[in-house]
Amino acid sequence: MELPKEIFKKYLSFNEKLYNFFVTITGLTIFNWEILKQIFIPPYEISEVKKHMNELGVKTFPIVSVTGFVIGLVIVMQSEPVFVRFGASDYLPGATAISIVRELAPVITALIFAGRVSSGIGAELGSMRVTEQIDAMEVSAINPFKYLVVTRVIATTMILPILTIYVIFLSIIGGFIALTISQGMNFEYYKNAVVTSVTFGDLIPSISKTFVFGYIVGIVGSYKGYIADGGTEGVGRASTTAVVLASLIILLFDTVLVKISLMIWPL
Amino acid sequence: MAVVELIKIENLSKAFGNKVILDNISLNVYQGENLVVFGQSGTGKSVLLKCIIGLLKPDSGNILIKGKSVVNISNKDLNEIRKNTGFLFQGAALYDSMTVRENLEFPLKRHSKISDDEAYEKVVNTLDLVSLKDAVDKMPSELSGGMKKRIGLARSIITDPEIMFYDEPTTGLDPISSKEISELILDLQKKLKMTSIIVTHDLNCAHIISDRNIFLKDGKIAYKGKIEELSKSDDKFLKNFFSNEIIH
Question: Which of A135, A214, A239, B224, by CA, is between 20 and 30 Å from A118?
Answer without folding.
Answer: A135
